[in-house]
Amino acid sequence: MQRFLADGSFLRVYLALALALLLTFGLALMGLALVDRVRVEQYREQLAEAPLQLLTWRVAALPAHQRGDWLTQQSDLLNVRLSLREPEDAELGWFERRRVEHGRVLVKVREEGDWRLYRRLPREARILEARLSGLNERQLRGLAQMLGDWLAEVNGEARRRRLESVTSEALPVRLSDLAPEGLDSHQLTRLRDGELVIRLMPGHWALTVHLAVPAADGSRQWLSIGPVSALEPTPISLLLLVLVIMLGVLAAIIYLIVRGVEARLARLELAAGRIASGRLDTRVKVDAGGFIGRVGMAFNAMAAQVQSLLRSQQEMIRAVSHELRTPVARIRFAMQMVEDMTDDPAIHRQLHGIDSDIEELDQLIDEILTYARLDSGIVNGAELERTQVDCRAVAERVIETLAPLHAHLRLALAPGDEVEVLADPRYLQRALQNLVANACRHAQSRVLVRITLESRLVRLDIEDDGPGVPAGERQAIFKPFARLDDSRTRRSGGYGLGLSIVQKVMAWHGGSVVVDDSQELGGARFSLLLPRGGNGRAKLPVKPA
After folding, report:
1. Whole-angstrom distance, CA of residue 491 vs CA of residue 364
2. DSSP H or E run through 272
3. Most exposed: 6, 376, 449, 496, by fewest CB within 10 Å?
């Protein structure tokens, strides 16, 4: 870890996340600016749609020789520079020209505040260009008066069609037979006298233009243009939507980064678990660089080294154990020859002691080979089927086997129901027999075996009335060749491998072995804890050494 911190790998990850955050905020700001720009352009185009449509229709209705004078007159009236241009003469880009050719309004605003509006004349290729420095009341009055005069030229259905043609969402136009509501008496008087009235609506940031339009029969109608609303600020709902999108993008970026790191770490975790369960041939697939890739390579190197060391250790133990059998056999053969050559009772007593030592040495070699066989199962164990085993039957067989060897002790199985567990019967019996034999070596008078069924496991307790195991030594006794210095000494026999073999057997079955004090007998209590279920298969060595 310190190496990764030292070479800045984690720092690069944090910097990547920070850059992703800044990039997301930058994209959000650009998105807001783009949205505002689109809204402004759309508002300008909608606002200019009706006036430019009216102007183009009026120009298109005039003869060619009258258009110049009319445009000059309207330019002075509206304070707008109006002119007709050919498409190739207009200062338009390719996309802008295509837009105008399709009959749409184009609004261009230069940096110096110069507005340029373009619209193609109906059924013609020429373009009407309007240049203005900004919107003012003079333009509003002139356009309203022009609209009124244009509507006054016709009556009835023709007037209604003209009215609908210039009405838009941004610039609503209405024609009514009743006087507009909301005007005071002074404004109504001015309106009846033919003046144009502009009504401000401060609460809505809008204004409405009213004027009278005479009809052919001498009556009048009332024309209302507006309300023309100012461009409102970006709605809060839109800002919240952009914020949600920004946070969503940020969350997605962080998720993708973290998911990639987590997936690679999960593979490391899975490989570590497989190695811990005994499959040291497991390796991690290194598919990328970075600190995770270096961790994977270091992990593979570590696993290979551990596998090699364990294999060498087990091969050495098996080789030494097998080699010991040959001199032991020669010593036993020589001892038997000496025994046959003499009848001296003293010599026979010495030979009997030597035979006991050879038997003990032979048993020690068997224990070493058993432990080595179990331990080597980590590297090259074979698959072994597990079956449903009756724990009480196994315990009864163990007691029947050991009771004649310990006539001074009372070995008993506590009453209870039949309990089955998914296990290998041979190795389960070996583990239970080792614990019962260990209890017999240290018990004063009683050894009790109790089998209980709990919610998720089966518990086999082996209790004795001996001196017990000190709390500080309860983990050390499961190490190979471990012995206690006080209560359980070498005088009690054993080789220090029995409990290690039990621990190995339990590990292969997915269980464990623990030791504590016996509440009933006062000595030690060893407990085998086995899971109630399983997959029916276990990695166990079945080939004898």
Report:
1. 16
2. helix 236-276
3. 6
Task: Tell me, letter by letter, the H, E, C secondary structure of 6-25.
Answer: HCCHHHHHHHHHHHHHHHHH
Q: Given the DSSP bridges, would you call strands 410-413 and 446-453 parallel, antiparallel or unpaired? A: parallel
> What DSSP designation does 230 have?
P
Nearest to 79 by CA among 118, 135, 127, 121: 135
Q: Are 462 and 449 in contact (CB under 8 A)?
A: yes
Token readout for 485 is 């210095």
Token duo for residue 243:
């914020």
What pLDDT is attached to residue 11?
61
Contact 283, 300 (CB under 8 A): yes
Q: Which residue stretches of 381-421 are H helix?
A: 391-402
Tokens 């001196």 -> residue? 467
pLDDT of 7-51, one tens digit each?
455 566 667 767 777 777 777 777 777 877 777 777 777 777 777
Q: CA-CA distance, 407 to 411, in Å (whole number)?
A: 9
As a whole number of angstroms, the distance between CA 406 and CA 410 comes to 8
148: Cβ contacts below 8 Å, ≥ 6 apart? 211, 212, 213, 223
Element (H, E) at 268: helix 236-276
pLDDT digits (tens, 9 = 90+) for 83-127: 888 888 877 888 888 888 888 888 888 766 678 888 888 888 888
- How many whole angstroms separate alpha carbon 56 and alpha carbon 127? 9
Element (H, E) at 82: strand 81-85
Question: What is the helix, strand, coil percentage profile of the chain, to 5?
Answer: 55, 20, 25
- Cβ-contact 439, 515 below 8 angstroms: no
Helix axes 137-152, 64-78, angle to 10 degrees: 140
Length of the chain: 545
Read off the tokens for 181.
């509501």
- The Cα 428–Cα 386 span in angstroms is 11
- Nearest partner of 174 among 185, 189, 159, judged by Cα: 159
Contact 462, 391 (CB under 8 A): no
What backbone phi and psi angles, to 5 degrees, belong to 414?
A: -65, 140
The DSSP letter of residue 490 is: G
Cβ neighbour number for residue 458 with a 10 Å cutoff: 21
Write down the pLDDT at residue 274.
78
User: Which residues are CB-neighbours of 534 under 8 A, at least 6 positions away?
Assistant: 386, 422, 509, 510
- Cβ distance 367 to 498 under 8 Å? yes
pTM value surpassing 0.70: no
Spatial strand order in the sheet of 524-531: 410-413, 446-453, 457-464, 524-531, 512-517
Residue with tokens 């059998």: 325
Distance from C-alpha of 161 to C-alpha of 90, rounded to nearest angstrom = 32
Longest CA pairwise span in the chain (Å): 162
Burial of 245 by CB count in 10 Å (0-12 exposed, 13-18 middle, 19+ buried)? middle
